[in-house]
Design goal:
CATH topology of the largest domain: Tetracycline Repressor, domain 2
Order of helices and strands: HHHHHHHHHH
Number of domains: 2
Radius of gyration: 21 Å
CATH class of the largest domain: Mainly Alpha
Distance between the termini: 80 Å
Number of strands: 0
Strand content: under 5%
Largest sheet: none
Shape: elongated
Structural class: mainly alpha
Amino acid sequence: MPEKSAKRLPGRPKQGDTDTTIYQTIISAASALFKEYGYESVSLQQIGNRCGVSKQAIYYHFASKPELFKVAMTTMLQNIRTVTAQLLDAADDLEQGLVRMAEARLANPHAEIETMMREAEPFLEAEQIRAIREAEQHIHELLADHFRLGMNQRLLREDDPMFLAETFSTLMLMGNRENASQKYESPLILGRKLVALFLQGTKAT
């Protein structure tokens, strides 16, 4: 006689592709709200309303709001790293790759990690903070690898590649300024100006 399937817990979504879709939808909604309003102002009810699921469904996938914040942040940072790698690897040279990366980042302003982290850290566990910081560090390491290659090719002067990576990432925050889209004709034009400024200060002599 076939075994009976386990009884589904209250609020637990059905298994299968829909379950994965709900998980991803929650992360997407949470990321958007955290970036727009910060950590404290966003409730699980707001996230549920944004993506059309109940708080019970959110709690099925995520143990707490801090855990959802960690997953949302690390997912966002992993996506940034993936796109950054694709753009840099597909470019003919370092300058072209940086311009393409700058255009993509400036066209989609990203939240300032430090601002969100300062607000959220009192509510996060050490492991959650570490996971977010590691995901951010992976982006800087990727950039540093390309800057190190530029130094080996004598395109850039000898310097700390991680410092250059962090500096370039800071330049990308120009896209978050309220008048950035009005002051410059396009993200591409602003990206070219920033990359030219960056390379002018780092080129080999």
